[in-house]
Amino acid sequence: MAKPASDTRTASVSAHSWQPSKDQSIPGSSMATQCGKCGPGYPSPLEAMKGPREEIVYLPCIYRNTGIDAPDYLATVDIDPKSPQYCQVIHRLPMPNLRDELHHSGWNACSSCFGDSTKSRTKLMLPCLMSSRIYVVDVGSDPRAPKLHKVIEAEDIHAKCGLGYVHTSHCLASGEVMISTLGDSKGNGKGGFVLLDGETFEVKGTWEQPGGAAPMGYDFWYQPRHNVMISTEWAAPNVFRDGFNPADVEAGLYGSHLHVWDWQRHEIIQTLTLQDGLIPLEIRFLHNPDAAQGFVGCALSSTIQRFYKNQGGTWSVEKVIQVPPKKVKGWMLPEMPGLITDILLSLDDRFLYFSNWLHGDLRQYDISDPQRPRLTGQLFLGGSIVKGGPVQVLEDQELKSQPEPLVVKGKQVHGGPQMIQLSLDGKRLYITTSLYSAWDKQFYPDLIREGSVMLQIDVDTVKGGLKLNPNFLVDFGKEPLGPALAHELRYPGGDCSSDIWL
């Protein structure tokens, strides 16, 4: 891809050209918990890579749209290979209400508060995509057995913010918690941000200026050194709530823009129209806090777009990866997109990972040159085009034959790779297979009947490459109340998509 003429300054920021300053290092240890004057997390992304191996993971598990009349719950899973409970759910915390649709989660405090010794990472925020509640879960007293700390009701958010359908939660250096929204109280599109007090978790109001919400919302990431935040957009909740209708795409009801916000003034300063960028979902700046660039995954058009600050001080965007659609028979449309639903970056900003939920593959790209990502690893982990399924591939620009169904420890994997999380050292990648209950039900009915799974991939961090761990399987089809849909993954000590460095 041709290098934009306006991008000379930003392009010079190599993925490997930065190191933490000497005063950021922790003598004798990389763990913030051993630094009495430090707050939660790590002083830099590279220090975080030296952190301890993950031993447990938290996953929201969903029963909405499954036919099981039970509340969603937070599962704690043991992922320590030395543990006798390896690959087992060791604790379940049910929520007090039905049909919440737990989705993404975040922390009350993370590495953006590293300089504040009064802060600690003890509360996990659980925004509910469809009920608009926010659950605050205490993981500090016993990380292996979390407890419900507080319930923030939807009516409180509606009344104080005029917002609803909460999604992404990030902690702020101020000690506050900020949560993006997809709509207003009636399910119309409204991309605003709910601000919570970081101690009491009371709703303080909106982060954005009054009347300044974006038309649609979804994910966001901020980069204070460049006084910027960028948010994405899915669609109004009333559009996607009950499933996907291709006519809504033709009607322009799905997102295709990035919104650039002034971090200090709390207002939109630029809206970027994405070419080949339908439904921009997960957005990630490079972890290097000096970097003025990052990537966003556009689900429906199956592209990865790189956004960057240009020489004029404004922001631009360019397509750097295109996953070609497959011509198919036996599916809802004659062409099947990959549907990029989650992306993340390794903490050293060397590798980009993303999942194609419909095609069924997980990919690794070397982004040492962010303008020219290079494919270094690919695995098929289920998906809609496996042999023996209802879909026949008629024309494929990438594969010579349809992939085999995936069976791990005797369990056939239904659905495709969806939410992904990387170990701090970058050597292990964890994936789950559920996207959103109504879309799961529409595209992968077997996922509803059989439950989702959690898998683990071994990563070659030297040359690049992905290899399935055949001995790792967490089967949420065998949960006590019936098959569940496990979603996003969080480690107690922070991870590649929860922590932002200042």
Give an overview of the whole structure.
Its EC number is 1.8.3.4. Interacts with USP33. Pathway: Organosulfur degradation. By secondary structure, this protein is mostly beta strands. Helices cover 8% and strands 34% of the residues. It contains 7 helices and 34 strands. Strands 29, 30, 31, 32 and 33 form a 5-stranded antiparallel beta sheet that branches. The model is unreliable at 1-34 (pLDDT under 50).
Determine the N-to-C terminus distance.
31 Å
What can be said about the biggest beta sheet?
5 strands, antiparallel
Strand content: 25-35%
Structural class: mainly beta
Low-confidence stretches: 1-34
The number of helical segments is 7
Overall average pLDDT:
93
Pfam family, one: SBP56
Protein name: Methanethiol oxidase
EC number: 1.8.3.4
Main location: nucleus
Write the layout of secondary structure elements.
Blueprint: H1 8-11, H2 45-48, E1 56-62, E2 73-78, E3 88-94, E4 106-107, E5 123-127, E6 134-138, E7 147-152, H3 154-161, E8 164-171, E9 177-183, E10 193-196, E11 203-206, E12 220-223, E13 228-231, H4 237-240, H5 246-250, E14 257-262, E15 267-273, E16 280-285, E17 293-298, E18 303-309, E19 315-322, E20 326-329, E21 335-336, E22 340-345, E23 351-356, E24 361-366, E25 374-380, E26 392-395, E27 407-408, E28 411-412, E29 420-422, E30 428-432, H6 437-443, H7 445-450, E31 453-459, E32 466-468, E33 474-475, E34 485-486
Antiparallel strand pairs: 1-2, 1-34, 2-3, 4-5, 5-6, 6-7, 8-9, 9-10, 10-11, 12-13, 13-14, 14-15, 16-17, 17-18, 18-19, 20-21, 20-26, 22-23, 23-24, 24-25, 27-28, 29-30, 30-31, 31-32, 31-33
